[in-house]
Specification:
The protein is α/β, with parallel strands linked by helices and 485 residues long. The chain is built from 19 helices and nine strands. The structure holds adenosine-5'-diphosphate and magnesium ion (MG).
Length: 485
């Protein structure tokens, strides 16, 4: 039992003194970072009739203290002030928020239970308004993103079956959270929606919510600005299934991470299902608090990889069947062969192909597919550079870039040099003058001469023509890593 301090209740600032004593003790027991986060912002308000009133920034903060530091607070207050002393909170919503957003500070009189009367059960979820569970919430799910429309392949098998297991028993499997990660356009969003849709299909009463991390963050900022943080928290804490897309958006957003961490813990503790997607594995998420990353690793982390050729074809075929189109398998194969690393792009080509064909009343054939792929790919593509062409040509003609730019008159070097100029003219937007400059300061007439020499050779030499054809193919490939043959 600690020393009972005899504090003069009438003395001004008594609350400061007693609270300072408490803080000195707390400081010794918690990590500096936690102290800064959770105790620095507390303001003692009054000490009267054995009740110490402290002001905390918001309800969330209050709950956090009660959940994590209740024992510590009770002990310290008893030791530093006295065994009969009780703690009361006053909640100041929205003021001095970490996000730096100014909102109308409003003091709400607290009716919080006194600290030593609190049991963890009482404070388990103070934000849930009785009856709100009956509310119908819009799950924000895209209906078309279903398991039926999600083609299975080696690339997604683990994530897909984990998803299906979750549908069977949301929150009750060891896949909580389920973290789906993978590069852009590989189906993370689709799969996450599919899980949500399937859960609702089985049990329409479940509170399922899909939200992108960006939207979550904006909602939170809005809640802070409008003093509705509690509503915000209430809402998320009553969910049965929370799906958060693109959690990498959390990087370096301290406040959002904090609130998300809180919601995550609440839901996880009550065995509610959490599904997250990310563009990288949790361990590679930069700018993220470790405690959050370690939570992400609690369940299952499953990656989505680029689909193989068969899966790409199956995806296109399924898509066409749904849209009611028929396209020859040869074309499907052609597209699938060329677009490898992004399913969104794969679908983009297909849609564009259908559009082109109906707009221009053209048959869908390989030539049209080729055109569309080229266009599509060019849109998103890096440009071909003179240097890039020089490298490709020197590789194919057993020379070096230095030789191309030098003065050697060896036949293979001369041809390679002329071809590089020809391809630079054909594939880049550089002027003849610029092209000449790249080749050791030749003038524009040399470039014209070279282009003509190559044209002649292409007409007369079949072997050369084949070789150039191959280099040109490589140039187009270099336009986009996902276009290959
Ligand atoms: P991400 O969120 O990983 O960037 P999306 O989920 O948005 O990718 O997927 C991009 C597109 O590819 C969507 O139209 C989606 O329907 C489609 N898609 C992805 N994976 C599959 C799959 N396995 N089967 C069918 N369509 C898929
Ligand atoms: Mg996505």
């Amino acid at each position: 039992m600690g020393v009972i301090k005899h504090v003069d209740k009438n003395m001004e600032q008594t609350h400061d003194i007693v609270w300072n004593d408490c803080l000195n003790q707390i400081k010794k027991e918690v990590k500096p970072q936690s102290y800064k986060t959770w105790f620095d912002p507390i303001k003692p308000i009054k000490y009267d009739q054995d009740i110490l009133t402290i002001q905390v920034p918001n309800k969330f903060f209050y709950e956090w203290l009660e959940q994590h530091y209740l024992e510590l607070l009770k002990r310290v207050i008893k030791n530093e002030i006295g065994p009969k002393v009780k703690l009361e909170y006053q909640i100041l919503i929205g003021k001095n928020d970490e996000s730096g957003l100014k909102s109308n500070a409003r003091v709400s009189t607290s009716q919080q239970p006194k600290a030593d009367q609190l049991h963890s059960q009482d404070i388990k979820n103070p934000f849930v308004i009785p009856g709100i569970k009956k509310l119908n919430i819009d799950p924000q799910l895209i209906e078309n993103y279903t398991f039926d429309a999600f083609v299975e392949g080696d690339c997604n098998r683990l994530a897909r079956s984990a998803g299906l297991a979750i549908v069977d028993k949301p929150g009750k499997t060891s896949f909580n959270p389920l973290v789906i990660y993978g590069n852009v356009g590989l189906g993370k969003t689709h799969l996450a929606h599919a899980i949500g849709n399937a859960i609702l299909e089985r049990d329409p009463k479940k509170n399922v919510q899909y939200v992108s991390m960006e939207k979550f963050s904006n909602q939170m900022i809005h809640a802070i600005q409008t003093n509705t943080v509690n509503d915000f928290l209430n809402f998320y804490q009553l969910l049965d299934v929370l799906i958060v897309d693109d959690i990498h958006f959390l990087a370096n957003k301290v406040k959002t991470q904090e609130i998300f961490f809180h919601i995550f813990n609440q839901l996880h503790q009550s065995h509610k299902q959490i599904i997250l997607t990310s563009d990288r594995a949790p361990k590679d998420l930069d700018g993220m608090e470790n405690r959050l990353i370690s939570r992400f690793k609690w369940g299952l982390t499953a990656d989505l990889q680029a689909p193989d050729l068969e899966t790409r074809m199956a995806i296109l075929q399924a898509k066409m069947a749904r849209e009611g189109y028929h396209i020859p398998t040869k074309i499907i194969e052609y597209i699938s062969y060329h677009i490898k690393n992004n399913i969104r792009e794969l679908e983009g080509v297909l849609i564009s192909l259908i559009a082109q064909s109906s707009l221009n009343k053209k048959e869908i054939d390989v030539t049209l597919a080729q055109e569309v792929i080229q266009q599509f790919v060019n849109k998103v593509n890096k440009e071909v550079t003179i240097e890039g062409i020089q490298e490709l040509v020197s590789e194919n003609f057993d020379t070096s870039v230095e030789q191309l730019n030098g003065k050697s008159r060896k036949r293979n070097v001369v041809i390679a040099r002329q071809l590089s100029m020809y391809l630079s003219k054909k594939y880049t937007k550089n002027s003849l003058k610029t092209i000449g400059e790249y080749f050791g300061g030749k003038d524009h007439s040399t470039v014209i001469y070279s282009c003509n020499a190559i044209k002649d050779l292409l007409e007369t030499d079949a072997k050369f023509r084949m070789k150039v054809h191959e280099v040109e193919r490589q140039v187009r490939v270099s336009l986009n890593s996902s276009v290959e043959e």
